[in-house]
Amino acid sequence: MGSPIYIQIHNQIRQAIEQGKWQVGDRIPAERLLAEQFGVSRMTLRQAIQTLVDEGILERRVGAGTFVASQKVQDRMAGVTSFTELTRSQGKVPSSKTISYVITTPTLSERERLRLNGEMQVLRMERIRYADQVPICFEVTTVPSDLVVSFARDEVTSSLYEALQDRGYTIGKAQQTVSATLASERIAEYLDIKRGAALLRLRQVTELRDGRPFEYTRTQYVGDRFEFYLENNR
Predict the structure, then answer these.
(1) N or C: which end of the chain has fewer CB within 10 A?
(2) In order of start, what are the domains of the chain with their CATH numbers?
(3) Helix axes 5-18, 42-54, angle to 10 degrees
(4) For 64-82, what is each residue's pLDDT tens digit?
(5) How far apart are CA 50 and CA 52, in angstroms?
(6) Can you state the percent helix, strand and coil of the chain, rounding each to 5?
(7) What is this structure's pTM?
């Protein structure tokens, strides 16, 4: 199975950045020009760019364009908690709506973060997550497909962590990065907010107890419906 066109473009743009064609802080060409360069529609090009934005490789600046992202100051968040567990701990009822659920070829970023080899494929799913029926975040989760091949779809989409733990897996540590972003038209529609509204973006790679990365998640939280609590033991 070949990679979708937008993933191929994603990979080429990321490689160009890694090879120094564009440096941190550089503005990349307009979508119209890039679409012509790659010979694709602007919709396909925009999907590739948005994937890079969600991964923190590119960043959009209102009225200015799209730029190679600068490195953000990071802090360590303690503990690994799933959205389901977190919502229940606050006395709310978690639920989700699955937007897409596909077995596909990983992007370079997914391959790198999940330490995939050869022709391994991934499950990539998009979900809207709710607390008491209020949309809290839009989440894109990528998992090695061999890990969940025996799982029913509803097990994975309702709570991946619970499905894994029910089969004897133990969740290990996670690496988390939080930054700010603005809602695109698509995300605004999913989360019932205005385009350009403030969002908190979390990128997380979670490992099993044996150190194998099993989940790469990009989540966009509605800024006024969610907050992160940071705890440092020093």
Answers:
(1) C
(2) 5-68 (1.10.10.10), 83-222 (3.40.1410.10)
(3) 50
(4) 889 998 754 443 455 556 7
(5) 5
(6) 30, 30, 40
(7) 0.71
